[in-house]
Amino acid sequence: MSSSNLQIINSDCVVIGGGITGLTIATILQRKGIKVTVLDKSSEVGGRLATCNIDQDEANKGILDYGIQYFKVKNPQFQVWVDDWLTDRAIEEWCQGFNPKDSSPCYFGIGGMSGFAKYLAKNLDVHTNTEVTEFSYEKKWLIETQSDRQYQGDMLVMTSPVPQSLSLLDASFVPLPLEVRFSLEQLEYNSCIAVLALLEKPSGIPAPGGLELNDDSIAWLADNHQKGISPNGYAITIHATPKFSEDYWDSDDAEIIYKLVTAAADYLNSPVIKYQVHRWNYSSPKTFHNESYLALLELPLVMAGDAFAAPTVEGAVTSGIAAAKLISQRFGIKD
Ligand SMILES: Cc1cc2nc3c(=O)[nH]c(=O)nc-3n(C[C@H](O)[C@H](O)[C@H](O)COP(=O)(O)OP(=O)(O)OC[C@H]3O[C@@H](n4cnc5c(N)ncnc54)[C@H](O)[C@@H]3O)c2cc1C
Fold first, then answer.
1. Ligand 1, atom nearest to 45 Cα
2. Which of 32, 46, 170, 269 could disulfide-pair with 204, CB 3.0 to 4.6 Å?
3. How many CB atoms lie within 10 A of CB 319?
4. At residue 125, does pLDDT exceed 90?
5. Can you list the domains of the chain with their CATH numbers?
6. Ligand 1 centroid to residue 285 C-alpha, Å
7. Which SS3 state, helix, strand or coil, does residue 291 take?
8. Is there a contact between 288 and 308 (Cβ–Cβ < 8 Å)?
9. Which 3 state secondary structure label does DSSP give 194?
10. Is residue 285 reached through a cis peptide bond, with omega within 30 degrees of 0 on the bond before it?
11. For residue 251, how many other CB atoms are within 10 A of its CB?
């Protein structure tokens, strides 16, 4: 590509990652008058807030959440955000818990979790299909992407899963202090294989359409039709356990589908007419950084995400709120 086609976009703050952490940070900073640009490599915002379609024909069109299925609230600070999302009809309550030990509300995105992500992004400057490949710092950050655009900003925020952020720092030759680097390298994630299946008839999954199985192979089974996001298709999501996901990561899709659909047979009650497999390499963190974000003193660089708080949407938002507070202070804006 000739350099004359290159467009340079300036912001106060550039956020890598349009998952819920990045969208939370951008929302708070924008409310405070800071110009923020969010970059995401995928074609849609949301990251692990992910929804897809599997269609057979006009009469049978499945819509499936294949990452996070629902989220809960523990912290009153997070409840304030959730109340706004409920008022705006971006989310709704699915049920009061999926096991008798936990009867607090479970929320899901209206239009699927990616519909919720689109709602979060709707007033933000978000650039999808924009994979950051490297960056450098000299008075300002200069961020290179696979698109025909470069981005400049005073502050850089990384919200990709930590191993991906570390690879990007390496590709950019941006060193971290040794003890910080060591601590981030210790963070581990579970992987998760998801099977998405369109059934011919209604599933036999009992109301309200979600089951925590946690047996040898299946962690979670969901009926997206009962959940309300797939009105014209009996679409189910199967999440494998971390152990199964690790053991079968490199197996071909046909073997994975055979094993998981067989294991779920008691609950399906119907032939499978179409399916897909999705592999989440970084599904949820197993270990956590000891603070809710990481900020460098040497460089205007902040890292945030669920690995800095808890393996949930609440964890990601909590980390995002804390990181945004620090970034606002660095721009001289008080609460
Ligand atoms: C299978 C599964 C089940 C889950 N179940 C639950 C649950 O029941 N309850 C719950 O609360 N949470 C659950 N979670 C966890 C929850 O989804 C996450 O904690 C949360 O969504 C993390 O958000 P995030 O913004 O930190 O990261 P992500 O959503 O991973 O966002 C990171 C973003 O960075 C982008 N990116 C990465 N590298 C680059 C690059 N180089 N350039 C540009 N963009 C880049 C990615 O495309 C992605 O959009 C589940 C997750 C999965 C996968």
1. 49
2. 269
3. 29
4. yes
5. 3-43+128-187+287-330 (3.50.50.60), 51-119+188-285 (3.90.660.10)
6. 10
7. coil
8. yes
9. strand
10. no
11. 14
